[in-house]
Amino acid sequence: MLSKNKWIIKPYDDSCARELAEDLGLQYPMGALLAGRGYTDAAQARHYITKDTSVLHDPFLLPDMAKAVRHLMQGIEKHEKITIYGDYDVDGITSVCSLYKYITSLGGNVDYYIPNRGTEGYGLNTEAIEKLINGGTQLIVTVDTGITATVEVEFANERGIDVIVTDHHECGQSLPNAAAIVNPKRADSEYPFKELAGVGVVFKLISACEQYRATGSLSTKPEDAEKNIEALSRVCNSYSDLTAIGTVADVMPLTDENRLIVSYGLGRLSESENTGLSALIKACGISSDDNKKITSSTISFTIAPRINAAGRMGTAQIAVELLLTDDEECAQNIAQQLCDANVDRQNEEQKIMEQAESMIAQNDLAFGKKILVLDHSDWHHGVIGIVASKLTEKYNVPSILISFEGDDKTVGKGSGRSIEGFNIHGALCECSEFLERFGGHALAAGLTVSADDLPNFRRSIEQYAENNITDEDTVKKIYADMELSEYEVTVELASELSLLEPYGTSNPTPLFILRDAIVESILSTSTNKHTRLTLKKGKERFQCVMFGRSPESIGICNGNSVDILFNLGINEFKGSKKRQMIVRDIELSSEEQREIQSDVLLYEDILNDRILPALPHIPNRDECINVFKYLKNAPDGIAYALHITDRLGISYVKLRLITDVFTELGFIKGVWNTPLQFNFTLLPQTEKRPLETSVLYNKLNTR
User: Fold this and answer.
1) 172 and 209 share a domain?
2) pLDDT at site 367
3) Is the pLDDT at 287 greater than 70, yes or no?
4) Which among 123, 394, 648, 686 is least buried, having the fewest CB atoms inside 10 angstroms?
5) Can you tell me the distance from the alpha carbon of 451 to that of 408, in angstroms, rounded to the nearest whole number?
6) Comparing 444 with 325, which gets the higher pLDDT?
């Protein structure tokens, strides 16, 4: 394998795929996609692609839902001051706003509280509860938090304040002594779907309240079916847009009723009655053009980051104010503030990324390290998690970034991200003697560490990673749905794929493989950030785009035979529809890979004196000079073998031998991450070192 990525095709039953395609009147690849996602009979698959609303579950099946509705409705009727206590991320913010708007619509006396990320951290805290009680709060409803707040809920109880907990996180060994605890992940829950977001639980609470208002019953009865459907329709029309945003932003699986709620919410977003949300959508530059519909990707990459920026860069309150206001001018001003905050977040993220990359380069951390642990005195704690994710994505090793920002430089806050197969929370458990606090799960974790303990922590977790991460683990696995022939990549298939939307976690955008296509052209966009490729296979010619990669960084040349991993869509322009192929990964085809592997073996045989080098593989002075000049101009210390051999007209074996000569002479320090990609650092030169002083160079040229 020449790539740092490993493509794995998900299994599916071929005969089942063919039967589904025939029964549903779809093309074979659609049958394969449905079968691969677990929809193995026609009735089940039909419900899925038609988004049958019967999948929405009875809200009163959630534990304590009847208790929660009774307490909440009594609080509203008695005009008690109700405070909604939420989280500062998008799920928490949309949860707060949904419930706040609902209680307000019923004439309730409601307020909200979101802790400050920097000074209070996540979840309920007794100081905040004390403040709320002193402010007249009589009932607290938590959203997207509270399931482990045993001490804090007891504190509220002692002060005579009831707490309703609504949450979706994993439960602890014991539950808080709350008036009601609504969480699908409770051990005693009979709810058929466990993966609601925090805002999804709020959506179900509002649905249950509306059913109660319509029927007077704290349970769902068959004779009330029509009234309950009308109640659900009202809830969907008013709150599915916010629920969709929170669900997608919190990376919840878009299966079961999540998929239905998000699908309905996406349809509402373009015509949302929420003044602030409409202003934000406009400020984002999202068009209402039907050809550019709002998708789950729009939420993930455009809407959610702006809402999240409030909590990351300052206080989440401004985002709540936006989603609650009915004043258009106010909404426009706040929406612009959030866009500005997102730009600040992006700038801060870019700064931290550059500093982190510099640390990696200066300390050779990319060469053989199984985990990256980086720290800085003024990294913004609200952004380091994003950068850790990007570093893990780039190097495919776990990353932990630690910030010692603020006046107190003795304690740092860290955020870690991991790779498949390495439990970063488990790793922190093994190194806990050097940490003050930590928490999280297998792929993401947070920690607090003192400056004095940091060196010991770094050594400990690096050793743990070295012992528990194999070289195979650092190969990124990408799961494709199926291979397509050149004749199956059609506009008709792209159109049918829309039946699977909305895409997201557990329902990803279909990913296909096309093999043995010839590269006819590789062109950069005007910004050189993206690449347009023309590929040909048989009689078919394909126009493709690869985002975020320059032609140089792809590492292939015209005439190469390649395999591509791609998403298929439709590009509609002036009424004309064409297939659109978004390339996610690219590598040489099997035949060309075998040729490279043969060259690698030949190079190793020459280097280890198993055979004598043939004349085409013996480097001369001019060739060495040309390669060194090329490396000096290579961006980011990365060079690609095919580019060098193509442009300089030298063999692959010769190139590898030249880099070994440079390494021996101390000109460079580097590693071939794959047989085609060379990561290197140019070393400072204090004295001249002629090529003839290289043992390898002399040995090659005296044969």
Assistant:
1) yes
2) 60
3) no
4) 686
5) 10
6) 325
Q: What is the CATH number of the domain that holds 503?
A: 2.40.50.460
Count of domains forming the chain: 4
Task: Check residue 301 and report its DSSP letter.
Answer: I
Tens of pLDDT along 122-153? 778 899 999 999 999 999 999 999 988 899 99
Of the three residues 411, 443, 471, the one that is the final residue of a domain is: 471
DSSP letter at 70 equals H
What does pTM read for this prediction?
0.84
Distance CA 195, CA 257 (A): 9
Q: Does the residue 292 lie in any domain?
A: no
Residues 482 and 603 in one domain: no
Q: Does a structural domain hold residue 23?
A: no
Instruction: State the greatest distance between any 2 C-alpha atoms of the chain, in Å, as a whole number.
Output: 98
State which amino acid sits at residue 30: M
What DSSP element (H or E) covers 688? none
Report the percent of the chain where pLDDT is more than 70. Answer: 96
**Are residue 214 and residue 171 in the same domain, yes or no?**
yes
Query: Do residue 512 and residue 492 come from a single domain?
Result: yes
**Which residues contact residue 556 at a Cβ distance below 8 angstroms, ignoring those fewer than 6 apart?**
519, 522, 562, 586, 588, 642
Provide the pLDDT confidence category of residue 308 given band limits of 50, 70 and 90.
confident
User: What is the rounded distance in angstroms from the CA atom of residue 557 to the CA atom of residue 432?
Assistant: 49
For residue 261, the 8-state DSSP code is: H
Return phi, psi of residue 319, to 5°. -70, -40
Task: At 494, list the tokens.
Answer: 């792209």
What region does 472 belong to: left with phi over 0, alpha with psi -120 to 50, or beta? alpha
Residue 445 belongs to a domain: yes
Burial 574-595 (b: 16+ CB within 10 A, else e): eeeeebbbbbbbbbbbeebbee
DSSP state of 299: I
Contact 168, 194 (CB under 8 A): no
CB atoms within 10 A of CB 124: 25
Amino acid 3: pLDDT: 60
| Parent domain of 618 | 591-701
- One DSSP character per residue, 407-449 reads S-TTEEEEEEE--TT--HHHHHHHTGGG-SEEEE-SSEEEEEE
pLDDT tens per residue, range 564-587: 999 999 887 777 888 889 999 999
Q: Quick one: 687 exposed, middle or buried, by C-beta within 10 A (0-12, 13-18, 19+)?
A: exposed
d(CA 567, CA 494): 9
Last residue of a domain, one of 219, 240, 261: 240
SS3 at position 223: helix
Residue 636 has pLDDT above 80, yes or no: no
CB-CB neighbours of 350 under 10 Å: 12
Of the two residues 427 and 437, the one the predictor is more confident about is: 427
**Which single residue is written with the structure tokens 């980051």?**
305
584 φ, ψ (degrees, to nearest 5): -100, -25
Q: What percent of the chain has pLDDT over 90?
A: 68
